[in-house]
Amino acid sequence: MGTVQYDFADETAVVTGGSSGIGRAIALEFADASATVINADIDPEPKDRDAEKPTHERIEADGGTAEFVETDVSDPEDIRVAVEAAREYGGVDVMVNNAGLYIGGPMREVTEDEFDRIHAVNAKGVFFGTQIAANDMIDRGVAGSIVNTASISSNVAQFGQVQYDSTKGAIRMITRGSALELAEHDIRVNAVAPGQIATEFLEGWTEEAQEGAEEGEFLKPVPLGRAGFPTDVAPAAVFLASDAAGYVTGELLHVDGGWQII
């Protein structure tokens, strides 16, 4: 099969939640494409079991340019600081609103605090990440791209996940509505929609579960016959941000091994 190379030289990508999992893979993928990367996360230390260095240090060790900015995406002011940090490198060209939180449990048992917390990170964080990045791009008079991390849960209900599914459904409509409003400013807004990806994202995810995922032990069969990993999602995010997707906006690109079709 063929290979694809993207060139983001002289461009800056801000990736929220870039320390671990899908966000780390996306940050590293942009760095491989020569972008300057701002990792906007609460903690620079990765949770991935095979990660030896924080994302920004790994990128710098590989000869790239990167910076960590402590960011709680539930606070729009923190997002604004991260976007402003990109000005040192010319300003944000690509905004990846990836930071997310998972809280599971039966709908009847979800507390108000749990509901508020997951919506503050997942939905509010993406909304204001999109808004703040778009306003910065417009103020600078540049075209740009915004990529959000949605989910198969943006379209499909899953048992014990109403509170989580509702945030991912919100991200779907934030993506579509923002794409409609920002098109006149040459800003494209899209989302990747990962399926069941083996990461440290889920609380209680153990090494045994990771090994089980690698052996294909999911509750629902995946047509492609294997687990998904962050490195499956990252190229899709970079594609959506690239000129190769220059006529694509308002879309959710599913990266789920075909999970949603059965």
Automatic annotation (TrEMBL):
Tell me if Lipoprotein is a UniProt keyword of this record: no
For this UniProt entry, which segments traverse the membrane?
A: none
Q: Which GO terms describe its molecular function?
A: oxidoreductase activity
Q: Which UniProt keywords apply?
A: Oxidoreductase
Please name the source species: Halolamina salina
What's the superkingdom here?
Answer: Archaea
Kindly give the Gene3D superfamilies that the UniProt entry links to this protein: NAD(P)-binding Rossmann-like Domain
UniProt enzyme class? oxidoreductase
Claim: Oxidoreductase is one of the keywords in the record: yes
Q: Which family does it belong to?
A: Belongs to the short-chain dehydrogenases/reductases (SDR) family.
What PANTHER family is this protein classified in?
Answer: DEHYDROGENASES, SHORT CHAIN, ESTRADIOL 17-BETA-DEHYDROGENASE 8-RELATED
Question: What name does this protein carry?
Answer: SDR family NAD(P)-dependent oxidoreductase
Task: Please name the InterPro entries in this protein's record.
Answer: NAD(P)-bd_dom_sf, SDR_fam
The organism's taxonomy opens as: Archaea, Methanobacteriati, Methanobacteriota, Stenosarchaea group, Halobacteria
Q: What is its EC number?
A: 1.1.1.-
Family annotation (CDD domains): SDR_c
